[in-house]
Sequence to fold (138 residues):
Amino acid sequence: MNVPISERREWIPAGEVARKLGYTRQHFARLCRGGGVPSVRRTKGGHWRINPTKEFAAWFDTQPRNLVAKFRATATRGQKRALLDQSWAELRKLNSQRESLRLEIQRLAKAQDQMIDHWRAGIAANHALPSASVTSSR
Fold:
């Protein structure tokens, strides 16, 4: 049934609402069971039904939609191929950036190690001078 949720008058099956949101029936049932969905009731047979109240309609409008599921169901083969090609290009770009960052981290770690070694050498030199002067004055 393609009637907007806000205009419905009878109780709506949970599966229909789940489909409109792009959720699985199981996920939507978990939301109902957890109390996350307003205006729901469970039938004697264990099925969830939703009363299309204004409160439910407001909740429904705030829910994220699973657009990936809708795209899989409605996109043409060419659209899917174009999206896949775009995704691969983005993945290659991200891998390149990851490699650049890995090299930068290695460079910074090496520079940090050098600074620590220089700092330790300076502390060792400062501690060595007084003891050397004390030894030479005896």
Remarks:
- The CA atoms of residues 19 and 25 lie 8 Å apart.
